[in-house]
Amino acid sequence: MSLKSTLRAATALTLITAGSAFADAHSATITIATVNNGDMIRMQGYTDTFTEQTGIAVEWVTLEENVLRQRVTTDITTNGGQFDIMTIGMYETPIWGANDWLVPLNDLSAEYDVDDILPAMRGGLSHDGTLYAAPFYGESSMVMYRTDLMEAAGLEMPTAPTWQFIREAAAAMDDPANEVNGICLRGKAGWGEGGAFITVTGNSFGARWFDEEWNAQFDQPEWADALNFYVNLMNDYGPEGYATNGFNENLSLFNQGKCGMWIDATVAASFVTGDDSTVADSVGFALAPNAEGVEKRANWLWAWALAIPAGTQQEAEAKQFIEWATSKDYIELVAANEGWANVPPGARASLYETPEYLEVPFAQMTLDSINAADPTNPTVDPVPYVGIQFVAIPEFAGMATEVSQEFSAAYAGQQTVEEALAKAQAITNEVMEAAGYR
Amino acid sequence: MATKASRSAARIMMAPAVILLLGWMLVPLIMTVWFSFRVYLPMRGGDQGWAGFDNYTRFVTSSAFWPSVQTTLIIVLGVLAITVIFGILIALLLDQPIWGQGVVRILVIAPFFVMPTVSALVWKNMFMDPVNGLFSHVSRFFGADPISWLSDASLPSIIMIVSWQWLPFATLILLTAVQSLDSEQLEASEMDGAPWAKRFWYIILPHLGRAITIVILIQTIFLLAIFAEIFVTTGGAFGTRTLSYLIFQRVLESQNIGLGSAGGVYAIILANIIAIFLMRIVGKNLD
Q1: Does the beta-carbon distance from B148 to A244 stay under 8 Å?
Q2: Which cellular component, as a GO term, is one annotated location (chain A) (predicted)?
Q3: A325–B contact, CB cutoff 8 A
Q4: How far is Cα A291 from Cα A381, in angstroms, rounded to an integer?
Q5: Which residues of A fall within a CB distance of 8 Å from B249?
């Protein structure tokens, strides 16, 4: 080989190497799918801080809850590889972990302090003792109410109200002339929307999805009691069209001052007391209600968590992001910039040992609500499943979405409660027979 | 004149395109048929073997099947009725010499260029929202209770949204037909003393026959697969689950590929029956 051609080859090689190194330095972009809830939107605002620290660029795909679930589920089952990090919850994580679809998070750094994650959250996001997703925030459900309207009505909210009291209070606060509804609750179809809410309402009336032999229980009187109570309550004191309202719709109504009470995720507390709320100064909190004589309350347990789908090309970078977003440092970063009330709640024990945080009005109620939730014994009567507002089996998402659609049709007055329950019973048994449970 | 050689050259040159198009169509079709005979549950470990005709029987015997077929047909017929009737009226109006005709025509056609998801979102949030929507404000202004459109009048709402999108298409086709009408014929009948209704019924409408069948044929093919508008507005709740939405639920929400594929095969059969039926009518009309 002549000198000239050697030089040429060397130059070419250098260019190629440099080119690929250049590409490497800039190819570290991770794509994250997440839900359009306030805390995640806030997290996106801090993306630049993460990119500055690590050099890893982040692309966000932000979707509405129901849509997010379909997108990430399709992506993971088809091995689509669209995302490096997915925002999933306590329902998906153990099932996907068992299928080896997620990267185990068992080698997180010491300073991350995985033991600091609340045991309820860690348990719900693990399969066989291995953590598969890190909680960004954790939540239960609780009553949020307008203290000014309660006072005007001459009522006082107990720490642990019953449904009967909630109805009484809703009647007292309902003021259609001033566009104030006594109560706002979820009715939107979708297993994680209205389906979740009516399931915990059922639990608090002594109802359950299945008996121990996996027979559907919608033909039992407890379900009729729960659904009738809910429909009457909402028809009498709920907003127009509540059958299409989910978390975000109710949040917006509450913040506009159009709800006397709202029973929903504890994580909403920072938004109803935040800058976007017109009623921020007069919001009180109480435990989720139960029917008189029933021990279980309508409180659920959920974590929105970050997980890495197996097969991603950016596993190390994705882990770095998860460690950053769910760390104590991130909590402190938000606290320093936006105040302690706005940090993601319910995930870390140390947060509830921070004196500044305990001064936040809803901090203790959130922790109490989370601690009151027991996913292994969610109902009065024993059940063969784990999960409070869901049943942790792969068939649940599809089946519960259809069931909640029947319920939503009842909320809209398109069918009676009895018809909705009969259809729910048929749908559930159809699916369980096909899946070989019974 | 084509020689033998030029014909075979043409065949060779066209072959790649034909093969590509056939593959484009046949591969998904064959896969759908194949999956419809399998127990394919991604959440339960994937393909679990032969299912025989189980998926087919389960799909039609499920409590959701017939209501979904019925919903599909109601939406198709509803939209067709509205778009054809209003399409004719608007086409006749646009045919009149009016000031600013060009602008009006563009405005009428505009909805056709809006993506279905976008228009559904706009209708849902800006017009039909029972608290903050325009319609609810109008109702309250007149002292009436606002209607919860998407839950209380779900099917009419969907039909309204879809009709809004398809009306421009119908109008455009029908306007072209109206304009091709021989004006002398109309003038002659007018001079003979025929009233407007009779002129419309005996001259204009028969002339529009062909255009109307084309509108019906093309719209039906698209409307049978309607999905985005339902996905965005009601998510299949409140009796708005069409056959295509049911298939989506089976495949994506229930993660049952086999069952959903069987539904897909039924949908193909249904669409073909309707298409053949319509083609015959069109064929007669186009003679």
Answers
A1: yes
A2: periplasmic space
A3: no
A4: 15
A5: 398, 401-402
Nearby residues of A202 by Cβ (< 8 Å), 6 or more positions away? A208, A209, A222, A223, A226, A227
DSSP states of A164-215 as a string?
HHHHHHHHHH-BGGGTBEEEE----SSTTTHHHHHHHHHHHTT--SB-TT--
Which tokens is A424 given? 């729910």
B11 and B226 in contact (C-beta within 8 Å)? no
List chain B pLDDT tens, one digit each, 287 residues. Answer: 567 888 899 999 999 999 999 999 999 999 999 999 999 998 888 888 999 999 999 999 988 899 999 999 999 999 999 999 999 999 999 988 888 888 888 888 899 899 999 999 999 999 998 888 999 999 999 998 888 899 889 999 999 999 999 999 999 999 999 999 888 888 898 888 889 899 999 999 999 998 998 899 899 989 999 999 999 999 899 999 999 999 999 998 888 999 999 999 999 999 899 888 888 877 776 65
What are φ and ψ of residue B62, in 5° steps? -65, 150
Judged by a CB distance cut-off of 8 A, whether residue A66 touches chain B is yes
A88 part of contact set with chain B, CB < 8 Å: no
Q: What is the sign, positive or negative, of the torsion defined by CA atoms of A353, A357, A359, A361?
A: negative
Test the A interface: residue of B31, B41, B43, B136 with most A CBs within 10 Å: B43
Q: Are the CB atoms for A378 and A203 separated by under 8 Å?
A: yes
Starting at the edge strand that comes first in sequence, how are the strands of the sheet with A141-146 ordered?
A181-184, A259-265, A141-146, A283-287
Rounded to the nearest angstrom, the minimum Cα separation between B29 and chain A is 19
Q: Which residues contact A298 (CB under 8 A, 6 or more apart)?
A: A141, A197, A200, A201, A203, A204, A263, A288, A289, A290
Contact yes or no for A399 and B235 at CB 8 A: no
Which residues from B are below 8 Å from A when comparing CB atoms? 41-45, 58, 62-64, 129-131, 136, 145-146, 148-152, 154, 234-239, 241, 249-250, 252-256
Q: ∠ at Cα A81 (A76, A86), nearest 5°?
A: 60
